[in-house]
Specification:
globular; 68 residues; mainly alpha; 57% helix
């Protein structure tokens, strides 16, 4: 997962990301440490938030572009 990398590139905290996605900071922390995996709805929200593809978000490709 590239959540932490993308979050740091945007210069935002876990708390800000959690608030923007209507979740809590603990959830974001667990995603970043691999202690919890986001479901499909959360993956979609994260990908849309960071404007990257889900494949990029989960590390299946190095191309961040969304196929629209």
């Amino acid at each position: 997962m590239r959540i932490k990398e993308l979050r740091k590139q945007k210069g935002i905290s876990q708390l800000k990301l959690a608030m923007d996605l209507h979740t809590n900071q603990n959830t974001i922390s667990r995603y970043e440490t691999g202690k919890r995996e986001p479901g499909i709805e959360e993956l979609i929200r994260l990908a849309e938030y960071f404007e990257v593809s889900i494949d990029y978000l989960v590390g299946r490709t190095d191309n961040p572009k969304m196929n629209v």
